[in-house]
Specification:
Elements: E1 6-12, E2 16-22, E3 38-43, E4 45-51, E5 55-61, E6 64-66, E7 81-85, E8 94-100, E9 104-110, H1 117-121, E10 128-133, E11 136-141, E12 145-151, E13 154-156, E14 171-174
């Protein structure tokens, strides 16, 4: 049985203040709340964005309770759009990272979580990538820290295609909870 995705946004920490329940993608949340300091994800995996129209910093949230914005590694209390990650990926994951734009240079194939891209592959930058299976979260720092970028099935010819301002990578993980 497939359950709809559900996320609740709260203006204050620890699930206090004005709240908004959401069960579908929303390109502009500003009419529902002015700031966001805690979130409860009842079901599904969600990407929240600091700006409207799915722009700005991304934060990928799995089911759980986030009592303050530091728990999702936010840089501010701004959440202006969100969308549910669709479970269309099955149970396998495959990611290929390239050292140059347009799939150039050496490539590494990945099928598991990597806490340090440098320690595992001697790679500090990825300029392009191809996701053939699964959905992934790419982080610009090791140990699943820093800016987050959702990578879904598809081709990314350059790092700006996944929303990064620079090609730096530190770690990445598979999205396994839907």
């Amino acid at each position: 049985m497939l359950f709809p995705s559900q996320i609740t946004f709260f203006e204050e920490k620890k699930f206090q203040g004005r709240c908004y329940n959401c069960s579908s993608d929303c390109a502009d949340l500003h009419t529902h709340f002015s700031r966001c300091n805690s979130i409860r994800v009842e079901s599904g995996v969600w990407v929240i964005y600091e700006r409207p129209s799915y722009k700005g910093f991304q934060y990928i949230l799995s089911p759980g309770e986030y009592t303050d914005s530091q728990q999702w590694m936010a840089f501010s209390d701004s959440v202006k759009s969100c969308r549910a990650v669709k479970n269309i990926y099955g149970s396998s994951w495959k990611l290929r990272l390239y050292e140059r734009p347009d799939f150039g240079g050496q490539a590494v194939d990945c099928s598991d979580d990597v806490a340090s891209a440098y320690d595992t592959y001697k790679m500090r930058e990825a300029y392009s990538c191809v996701v053939t299976d699964g959905a992934w979260v790419l982080y610009d720092l090791p140990n699943y820290r820093g800016h987050q970028f959702l990578l879904e099935r598809g081709e990314y010819r350059q790092h700006i295609d996944w929303g990064a301002s620079s090609p730096g990578i530190g770690s990445f993980r598979r999205i396994t909870e839907f």
